[in-house]
Write a structure and sequence with these properties.
With 409 residues, this protein is of the alpha/beta class. Helices cover 33% and strands 13% of the residues. It contains 14 helices and ten strands. Strands 1, 2, 3, 4, 5, 6, 7, 8, 9 and 10 form a ten-stranded mixed sheet that branches. Helix 3 links the parallel strand 1 and strand 2.
Length: 409
């Protein structure tokens, strides 16, 4: 890991921190929370037990097979900040004799707002799964022609027929991650695994001033739910949500909890001793350790049975792009094992590619042996808990309760 030292996950979530939520909530609810049915029409929200096959609309068909890549082209990638290894991009440019221009955004809503102007001709977008319905309905993303993307065979089967995009009609997978608990084991003995409810690990008053949770209304409200034994991280039950809020308020009183997205620096530095954390951030801990402090003092826990928060981002091709063939080839390129390993070595966040294993990551010196718990397994996406698109009224409740927790902290 190297480069800017920025956490993509932190940059993503930072855009919805604290007061920003209050102003954004009404607008977001109005524009992006219309429920979608399994056939792609208005109805139920996409869920593992209610999968979606998105429609292909007239005038927005996939490109024909057998086309040559665009020549002397500039492929335009619209991506999160610090979310792809520049060495990977340069290798693609050399292979296809093209230029790749990267424009970045910090939040999904920022990206959608820019796209809604219709003035941009980006070729590729890296969206979260909860906005796919909006993008499909607006004909902003193009159906994929699978003949250009044979490397999908290297991806986990979970992502060749995902519930949020059956038959991978519009998406291929990009990165994957878990949300767990990181701690400095030289200051905090034991492990969450030793607790009857491992999420209780943060509720330890003796570490007052050294405990932090993520500045993210979904992640931290979900932490409160799991503290209370609730595993439906998309609940609309107001009583459960209020109880989760109270658990987080109790955590504040007990530990003077910090709220930030600096897990990737604050745990390695020892500024925090326990931190609610993302796996991809903690996989990069080695690069942020103070001189002379071994990375082995950093630990990361995610439930051994896989029943914890898991998530992924996707790659899509924008309908307004000028280089659809190159765009397909770029998606295919990122699905190759060797490319994925090179990307992970800088990005930190894993990709769901066969061959990306704890053993391989350690062998390639991408990951220290002590942090193999940050590796996301295919089984995690079978048993894991997903934070998915919420109905608009429930989303507003989640956000308001989080504001009541986070204000003044």
């Amino acid at each position: 890991m190297g480069g800017s030292g920025l956490s993509r996950r932190g940059l993503l979530k930072g855009g919805l921190g604290l007061g920003a939520l209050a102003g954004l909530a009404p607008a977001l609810s109005a524009c992006s929370d219309r429920p979608i049915a399994a056939g792609g029409a208005i109805g139920t929200l996409p869920r593992p037990d209610s999968p979606v096959t998105w429609p292909v609309y007239p005038g927005n068909a996939a490109i024909p097979s057998g086309l040559e890549p665009e020549r002397n082209a500039t492929l335009k990638l619209f991506n999160w900040v610090a979310y792809i290894n520049r060495a990977v991009v340069k290798n693609f440019e050399k292979k296809y004799n093209c230029t790749v221009d990267i424009t970045t955004f910090n939040t999904m809503d920022e990206a959608l707002t820019k796209l809604s102007t219709g003035d941009l001709d980006f070729d590729i977008l890296v969206p979260t799964i909860d906005v796919l319905g909006q993008l499909v309905a607006a004909k902003q993303i193009r159906p994929l022609n699978h003949s250009y993307i044979p490397n999908i065979s290297q991806a986990w089967s979970t992502f060749t027929n995902p519930f949020y995009d059956q038959h991978w009609r519009y998406t291929v997978p990009y990165t994957i991650y878990t949300t767990g608990i990181a701690w400095r084991n030289d200051h905090v003995p034991g492990s969450p695994a030793k607790f009857a409810n491992p999420w209780d690990f943060l509720w330890q008053g003796q570490y007052k001033g050294k405990v932090a949770i993520l500045d993210d209304y979904r992640e931290s409200m979900s932490l409160g739910l799991m503290k209370n034994g609730v595993t439906d991280l998309n609940t609309t039950d107001v009583k459960e949500l209020k109880a989760a809020e109270q658990s987080l308020l109790d955590l504040t009183s007990l530990t003077n909890v910090h709220i930030d997205n600096n897990d990737y620096t604050n745990i390695p530095s020892g500024q925090m001793w326990i931190h609610h954390a993302w796996s991809g951030d903690m996989a990069a801990a080695e690069w942020y350790m103070p001189k002379g402090v071994p990375v082995e003092v950093v630990s990361y826990w995610f439930p051994a049975d896989g029943r914890g928060p898991v998530a992924n981002d996707t790659l899509t091709i924008l309908a307004g792009g000028k280089n659809p063939v190159l765009a397909h080839l770029f998606l295919n390129y990122l699905l190759d094992l060797d490319t994925a390993l090179e990307n992970i070595s800088w990005n930190g966040y894993m990709q769901p590619i066969h061959g990306v294993t704890p053993q391989r990551l350690v062998q390639e010196k991408i990951l220290p042996p002590s942090l193999t718990s940050t590796v996301v397994l295919e089984s995690n996406f079978i048993r894991g808990l997903r934070e998915l698109q919420l109905p608009a009224p429930s989303k507003a409740v989640w956000q308001q309760l989080w504001l009541e927790v986070s204000k003044g902290v």
